[in-house]
Amino acid sequence: MSHTALVNLWFFLIAFFWLGYFFLEGFDFGVGMLLPWLGRDDADRRVLINSIGPHWDGNEVWLVVAGGATFAAFPGWYATLFSGFYLALFAILVALILRAVAFEFRGKHDQARWRRWWDRALFWGSVVPSFLWGVAFADLLHGIPIDASGNFTGSPLDLLQPYALLGGLTFLLLFALHGAVFLGLKTTGEVAERSRAAGERIWLAALVAGFAFLAWSYERAVTANDTGLVPGPVPLVSLGAVLATGWLLRERRLGWGFVATATAILLLTTTIFLNLYPRVMVSSLSPAYDLTIFNTSSSAYTLGVMSVVAAVFAPLVLLYQGWTYWVFRRRIGREDLAEGY
Question: N or C: which end of the chain has fewer CB within 10 A?
Fold first, then answer.
């Protein structure tokens, strides 16, 4: 396979890893964000946490793979990304660590104050990454100060531009909606009903934010004349999926509602990657300074070895993760709680 073909392959594989991460971790984050409102007592909060307990750490594997693949396949992209976004990525890392620790430590003591602190860690450990991932991906597309040498020349405040903040809000609301629908499917009793009602309340805000973000993205793409790879139906179907979610929630068709929220997240992320291609980071200083898949990639040999490894192990990982979801597919209610956690 030629170097050009391998470079294209790995760009779209990395996009696939991010799609998987946002789809799976999206409802994890949504559950964490909804914890203070849907968990009226400790038993309810335990039901919410247990609904994602078997899956949250496996879902984060997609982030590790996406980061590792970027480092190996596009070291130039990785270097500029981490130098420019280091504060945001550090905040995400701290939030994810606190979130992981909260899952493990919350049930170690049967004290209300102890559990409240870890509940707060779960909440902020879900809110912060959800918002900052949206900010980061919107910044990749909108552009940040990158010079001719591929160095980030701005400050962290340059990342907090209005378009990026709207992207962060859109991701936050879509993940919250995704989590509410997931809980409606995964739990029973009053928790399931409150989750469905919460989804109805979040839905309109997610629809408005999604419309505004996609409209702004289209306007930006037209102005920059880089709409070539984005088929019109992709963002429209994403928005239509959010619109359909409201009706599906009212009709209590939560299975299709989950498909709809997943479709919205997947196609929104797809729109961003297709708008980027063949770039990986846009320079706000000059189009000549944009980072692309060609000027940031590894050698053909490296990409070839990576392709062989991915072809062998990726199907095994997908099969294993699918098996875990099948094993833990049963709904969870208060009656299923064990002593302690």
Answer: N
* Contacts made by residues 110-116, CB under 8 angstroms, sequence distance 24+: 110/340, 112/42, 115/42, 115/45
Give the position of tokens 């139906």: 233
Question: What domain range includes position 82?
Answer: 3-331
Q: How far apart are CA 262 and CA 205, in angstroms?
A: 17
Q: Is the dihedral of CA 283, 285, 286, 288 positive or negative?
A: negative
DSSP percent split of the chain into helix, strand, coil, nearest 5: 80, 5, 20
Amino acid 229: pLDDT: 62
Q: What is the mean pLDDT of each run of 10 residues along the chain (341 residues)?
A: 92 95 95 92 90 88 93 95 92 95 87 89 96 95 90 88 95 97 93 94 96 88 63 87 95 94 96 91 91 93 93 89 88 72 40
What the block records as the tokens of 220 is 């930006």
Q: Provide the b/e sequence for 308-331 (b: ≥16 CB within 10 Å).
A: eebeeeeeeeeeebeeeeeeeeee
**CATH code for the domain of 243:** 1.20.1630.10
> How many folded domains does the chain comprise?
1
